[in-house]
Amino acid sequence: MKYLILLLIALLSLASSCQKEDMPSDGHKNIFRCKVNGVEWTPHCISDPLFGCDAVDCQYYKEDKSIEISSISEYSDNSIDQFIRIYKYGVMIGENEIQKSSGYEFSNQNMPFPCGYYNMDTTKVHRLTILNIDTTNFTIEGSFEFDAIDRDNLCSDTVKITDGYFKLTYRF
After folding, report:
1. Phi-psi region of 143 (alpha: psi -120 to 50; beta: other; left: phi over 0)
2. 114: Cβ contacts below 8 Å, ≥ 6 apart
3. Mean pLDDT by groups of 10 residues along the chain of 172 residues
């Protein structure tokens, strides 16, 4: 019994040490939304009883001004299992040109393999607009649009992401 109690205390200590650091906030809730081929898309994740989940992760590095946003939408009934990733090096307030060293990705795990994996279509113009970077409250706000094509050219389909908007607390 003594060992069981010690094990329980150790597990509870471990679980509490894995929680995210509290970061200053202006009270906003993390927002990430867009349309995928004209259909509303919002993040969602399946919560783990011990660790919970974060459907959106945002990282911003002040030194090189790079941003990376990863967002998932997954449900336990497997009706949706999708992922959107946006990354840009040298980001600044206003319009940002998206080049090959930066980009967008989309994946749809509901597609039969090997389909469902998309990268930025480099023949199209892509939009990433940064509206605000608040380094006091660790928030970043912006909008985006992009087209993505089948990364292996095996399935010949495309994905159009429009009306993208985010206001997120970032970590570094």
Report:
1. beta
2. 152, 154, 155
3. 39 37 50 95 85 90 93 79 90 84 76 83 88 95 92 82 96 83
